[in-house]
Amino acid sequence: MSEPAMLNLVLFLPVLGMVMLLLVPRDAHGTVRGLALAVMLLQLALTVVLYQAFDPQVAGLQFETRLPWIADWGVYYHIGLDGLNVLLVLLTAFLGPLVVAGAFSAIDKDVKLFYAMVFLIQFAMLGTFVAQDLFLFYVFWETMLIPMFLIIGIWGGERRIYATLKFVLYTAFGSILMLAAVIYLVLSLQATSGITSFAFTDLYGSRLPLDIQVLLLGAFALSFAIKVPVVPFHTWLPDAHVEAPTAGSVILAGVLLKMGTYGFIKLGFPLFPDAARALTPAVMVLAVVSIVYGACLALVQDDIKKIIAYSSISHLGYVMLGLASFELIGIQGAIIQMVSHGLTAGGLFLMVGMIYERCHTRDLAAYGGLARILPVYSVFFMILTLAAIGLPTTSGFTGEFLVLLGAFDAAWPQYANGAATWPLVLACTAVLGVVLGALYMLRLAQKFLFGESRAPHAPLTDLNLREKLILVAIVAAVFVLGLFPDSFMQKTELAAREYQQQVLVEPESRWVRAAPDGGSP
Amino acid sequence: MSNLLTLIVVLPLAGFLLNGLAGNRLGKAFVSAVGCGLPALSFAAAVAAFRTLEATGEPIVDVVFRWALIGDSAFEVSFYLDRLSAVMTLIVTGVGSLIHVYSTGYMKDDASYARYFAYLNLFLFFMLSLVLGRSLLVLFVGWEGVGLASYLLIGFWFEDPAKAQAGKKAFITNRVGDAGFLLGMFLIYTAVGTLEMDRVNAAFMGPELPAVSASLVGILLFIGATGKSAQIPLHVWLPDAMAGPTPVSALIHAATMVTAGIYLVARLSGVYLHAPEASEVVAVIGILTAFFAATIAVVQTDIKKVLAYSTISQLGFMFLALGVGAYGVAVFHLYTHAFFKACLFLGAGSVIHALGGEQDIRRMGGLAKRIPVTFITFAVATAAIAGLPPLAGFFSKDEILWFAFASEAGGAPWLWALASLTALLTAFYMFRLLWLTFFGQPRMDAETAHHIHESPWSMTGILVVLAFLSTVGGFVSIPHFLEPMLPLPATDEHLHHFEVPLIVVAVLIGLAGLAAAAWLYGGDASRAARLGARFTGLHRLLSGKYYVDELYEAVLGRPLWWISDRIFLRLGDRALIDGTLHGLAGVARLGAAALARIQTGNLHLYVWLALIGIFALLWWSFGHV
Amino acid sequence: MDNGQLLVALGAVLFALGFAGLVLRRNVLVMLMCMELMLNGVTLCLVVFAQQAASTAATVLVFLVFVVAAAEIAIAVPIVLLLARHKHTLDLGAYTDLKG
Amino acid sequence: MIGQALLWFFAAGALAGGVAMLVLRHPMHVALSLIGTMLSLAGIYAALGVHVVAVFQVLIYVGAVMVFMVYAIMLLDVRDTSFTSRYSGLLIPGVAGLALFIGALVYVLRREGPVGDIAPGATAFRVERFSVDFLHEYWLHFELTSVLLLAAVVAAIAILKAKRRGDG
Questions:
Q1: Which 8-state DSSP code applies to residue B582?
Q2: Taking CA atoms, which of A144, A214, A231, D55 is between 20 and 30 Å from A443?
Q3: In this structure, are D23 and D66 located in the same domain?
Q4: Interface test with D, best of C1, C2, C26 (most D CBs within 10 A)
């Protein structure tokens, strides 16, 4: 099979899975689960093959498919892999089977519908990553909302309605603004160059006045910032996480939040480079505020899921910082940090789910000394905690270290030549965030794993084989990314560089698509 | 063998994996064999590597793999053995192996035997990465890794919340230092473009200095060192770290890990040589730490806490040496300190073992005859740390005092004076400890007294070896060995006639401390009690460790919590952000309620309204068409 | 006044009468019939315009409108029957369940 | 000329029927006047020469729709409040609306002027041309219509079933 066909297959496999689920009887839970897992594993296998075939030496898109969709509007079904999305696609495919397997025991209401929704969201997430056409991107972007809404709303906890409404309203609000900006962008491209196109590559070339760029970037950025989430657009996240079922939390933390940062790196900043440069201070300030604010809030929570939720805000603050540094090291670090956060936060949420199934509470005060009662569980929890802290040899370190190095590397020359001091102050504050990270994660580990042994519904059984396999996979990935990140970063390097060029190089020398047959300038 | 260095590092890792994954199933004999055998092999490999180094005189470089290549910046994992790292490697693997063997006796009855050895091997792995890493990055991996191992081992008996808490405190305090370390590392990278320490040194030693203040780099890295090596203001974690098993205190919190800061500064001597301000900071912080820790040690009543403060104090001495440019001397003291402090801690472990877990020296006494081997080795090590000739501590401490006095790179009489005063205090509190523990009337209860026994040979044997090393270790002149790469600072010619008198003063100081302790604590120790009663205020201040913990809690801990909870959570998240949202939702709901009044359910009205709408449209279209 | 004007005006008046009936009358069945009247008015206009354009498409459209009308009434009448069973009246004033 | 007269005649009939619908009290009378209007319209169509539409008008409207309607009226011969007071509470607004409508109509007719003359008896709507076109070009619409009817049938049945469930 050719690679482009394979990419399409990977994308549509979840849809296929949904259709197959329809054919299974409603009460055959075992078949449903097995089928879901098999499809997800197949998807992972195909994605790995694609990942292997992805050539790091080639700039731009690979495995491209471009078919007319709504030809009159210049809308194409245009997908492909590039350095920016290849790791995220791999992450999504990697987490898929884990989410499915993790939900085997947790979900026993409307099992079939549940896995159908997981498939749907998997489809939408992959689609958002691989889309190379703004219209297509937007369609996938909005599609993600529906299954997540249902997953939280149907299988969630007690306050699920509140949480799911908050989630949807927040996200929808951002999306509406983005839609307006998309329409404006396409129309202005049409007006200036005569091309009607939603293709990213065409839109990158459009040059708008700075004030318009700022407005449009504001609209895009709000939508992305809500998704990330950047403080102060974050309050939906803790509620959504707390009320979501485990699988929902894992998808949310593992992949969905990366949509925001991916949006920034793929669309927000490259589409409006002048505005991006002008707004860099604001973005960096918000990033650092997110780092510190999220960490501080994680420190005072008593709900385990909330701690991890707030830690996500802090960790994605690092991603934003790296992206806004426009320094190659920082950008690469941000990409790795995205993947790393997907692994650690996803893993931690899975682990919280496992203990919740046993004890039915997420209240930190109810636990203590699990290291004695559940030794295997505790080892995995500790490893993931340390990865979240960013201990060297884990993926968290790779991401954090490179992001901070990049931010510092970008800030120091500005300080040294007297241009600006604030970037350095921000970079140093972000480094101090590392301390806060250790503070809240160790507080969690401390109260949870150590101290006198107690837990509701004791005696507890330690992890079973299925749970062990899930966690081994995650932990292995965490270490691989921590110890040998090189091959991963080779795949993203060219794209990261291109992103940097797009934003930093002055518009005069930037590539502008020639208007066909003398269209108005 | 080309990958010898890798082998040194990887062997303990293998031990960790074996013991960690399969240790519980394989039995204690296997765990002991793996746990002690692999570090010993590592030691053997270190010796072999050392011989190669001696033979060729060239540093050995062992590139393992490329961690990352971003643009033109390559980050490689590679190991580097020169004279400095060779000394460190031998200390770490040598003392480490001894303490592993000791642990087989000390931890014999612990339920988590395999976990203990796994952690200990893990520690060795990270410590060796720290010492052998060529790049600051690898060093940092080891740096954080030993912090992790220390965290796990301090909280080894994690069911006691206080112990787990102590581990956390150590980790967090170290993290504060690490933030400084990271910034220093970034600054080096920005200025020099590489993190490989030999190149960094070369860049700073070279004709063209990097465009960055060496002092700033030095101070930032020193912040990291204060964390790891428990210097003011980040010293608070080390006394609490005594919650871990005693061999751990000996290995990690006395002999090896806490000296990482000294190693770091010595390793980057090229930077510090061009950073007089930073060196001054190092010297001043070092001497202040040495002095204050010694004063606290004078009134401590926990045998391990005394040793902990003593360790902080001795580390302060080493930093003093670094600060006055005598890098080789600092490493020399590091080396002798590793022997006698390990011996002291292990001896203390033996005492605790004998007394069934008792650590309070007010409930000891008269143990000299009951556990003679422990007593003798402990006494030798005490004499060594007090600086009595010809024991190891005498040589290294004397050289530190001399350079503090005479070095042209920052030496000053007041440094010498304060250092000598500290040495006096050191001798005093160490002999006080010796007296209270081994002499006088037994003060423990009868039941405990009945069970006192000498430790097994696996423990006493190690004590003897270490006591022997504490005795003869001083005759190996480390500064001389290191001189090719870490030359000693020039000394003022006019002061040379002070050299011999100073040595005499140092010896007298040691003896004075001995005499004072014997006089105060001899007999029923009533003199000491009276002295304490006269200076209650001072006594309370010292016993309270200058209330630094309380200060940090009040200045940092509680405000952080308050800001997080009150400002960020309650005011920011709940009141402002969610409040705004709920306010908007409320407005929408009110608006909906108002509009709902039109929904009378009367279809006629709806139709009529539609009619009006049609007219409005017609009206509009008449205007526009 | 030519024929076209006459017929278009007639269609509009029928539409207006139907609309007015919808507002004025109480009886649900009468209201339904008024709606039919409106539809007839529209159809008339459609036929006139089709006649002008001489297009078959318009005729087809007329045919479709008829079918829709038939379908509409086929559903509307049972609904009215149900309502009447339920409320025992055809008075629209009694049907206020959708009051907000 | 006769065609012209017929046109006027049927137009007057349709208008009369429409007005009668507004004022008659009994639903049956309303129904009869609606039938009158429809037949008048059929007459107009016939006069215009669009026989197909005229036939459909009679067959579908009068033959099917209105018969159904009349049945319903007979079935629900309730002499309730809608019978005693035939007008809703919006009598004056409704009449005002009607007046406005008419006013607007007059305004537009005067403003726009002639629509264009349509000779009675034009041959645009020949049956065979219509049939051929319908089944050649608009076959899809034809099929969709059947789908719509099917849906209507299903809906009607569903409503009746709902009634039974509601009662039971």
A1: H
A2: A231
A3: yes
A4: C26
The helix or strand, by DSSP H or E, that contains position B73, with its residue range, turns out to be strand B73-81
Residue in the structure block whose two tokens are 């309605």:
A161
In this structure, what are the phi and psi dihedrals at residue B135, rounded to the nearest 5 degrees? -95, 150
Q: Which of C73, C79, C81, C86 to mutate to test the interface with D (most CBs of D within 10 A)?
A: C73
Distance CA A432, CA A436 (A): 7
pTM for the predicted model, two decimal places: 0.85
**Contact: B68, A485; criterion CB under 8 Å:** yes
Q: Which two tokens stand for residue A519?
A: 């269209």
Q: With beta carbons less than 8 A apart as the criterion, state whether C18 and C37 touch.
A: yes
Considering only the beta carbons, identify the residue of B608, B618, B622 that sits closest to D94: B608
Contact assignment for B611 to C93 by CB distance below 8 Å? no
Q: Is there a contact between A402 and B68 if contact means CB atoms under 8 Å apart?
A: yes
B615 touches chain C (CB under 8 A): no
Residue A206 has pLDDT above 80, yes or no: no
- Report CB contact under 8 Å: B186, A408: yes
CA distance C13 to B617: 18
Task: With CB atoms and an 8 Å threshold, state whether B69 touches A372.
Answer: no
D155 is in which domain, residue-wise?
A: 138-168
User: Of B339-348, B369-378, D55-64, D70-79, which gets the smallest average pLDDT?
Assistant: D70-79
Q: What angle do CA B332, B337, B339 make, to 5 degrees?
A: 110
* Residue B573 burial (C-beta neighbours within 10 Å; 0-12, 13-18, 19+): buried
Say which CATH topology domain C3-94 has: Helix Hairpins (1.10.287)
The answer to whether the Cβ–Cβ distance between D97 and B618 falls below 8 Å is: no
**D122 token code pair:** 């034009």
Whether D57 and D92 map to the same domain: the answer is yes
Q: Are C75 and D155 in contact (CB under 8 A)?
A: yes
Could you give the CA distance from residue A485 to residue A399 in angstroms, rounded to a whole number? 10
pLDDT digits (tens, 9 = 90+) for D48-81: 888 888 888 898 888 888 888 898 888 887 677 7
**Residue D105 forms part of a structural domain:** yes
Contact A434 B565 (CB under 8 A): no
Half-sphere exposure of C96 (CA within 13 A, CB side): 12
Q: What is the pLDDT of residue B371?
A: 86
Name the helix (H) or strand (E) containing B130.
Answer: helix B113-132
> Residues A401-426: pLDDT tens digits?
999 999 998 888 888 888 888 889 99
Strands B60-70 and A75-81: unpaired
Question: What is the torsion angle, in degrees rounded to the nearest 10, for the CA atoms of residue A329, residue A333, residue A334 and residue A337?
Answer: 180
- Indicate if D99 and D64 belong to the same structural domain: yes
What are the boundaries of each domain within chain B? 331-529, 548-624
Question: Is the CB of B158 inside 8 Å of chain C's CB atoms?
Answer: no
Backbone angles phi, psi at B61, to 5 degrees: -120, 135
For chain A, give every domain's residue range.
274-506
In a domain, D132, yes or no: no
Look at residue A63 and give its three-state secondary structure: strand
List of chain D residues whose C-beta atoms are within 8 Å of the C-beta of residue B604:
88-90, 94
Determine phi and psi for A454, rounding to 5 degrees. Answer: -155, 145
pLDDT band at A512 (very low <50, low <70, confident <90, very high): very low
In which element (H, E) is residue B264 found? helix B260-267
Do at least 3 CB pairs under 8 Å connect C with D?
Answer: yes
Domain ranges, ordered by start, for chain C: 3-94
> Tell me, what's the pLDDT at B484?
83
Residues D88 and D160 in one domain: no
| ipTM score for this prediction | 0.79
CA distances from A87 to A52, A328, A334, A364 (A): 11, 17, 12, 34
**Structural domains counted in chain D:** 2
Is residue A365 within 8 Å of A304, Cβ to Cβ? no
Contact A120, A147 (CB under 8 A): yes
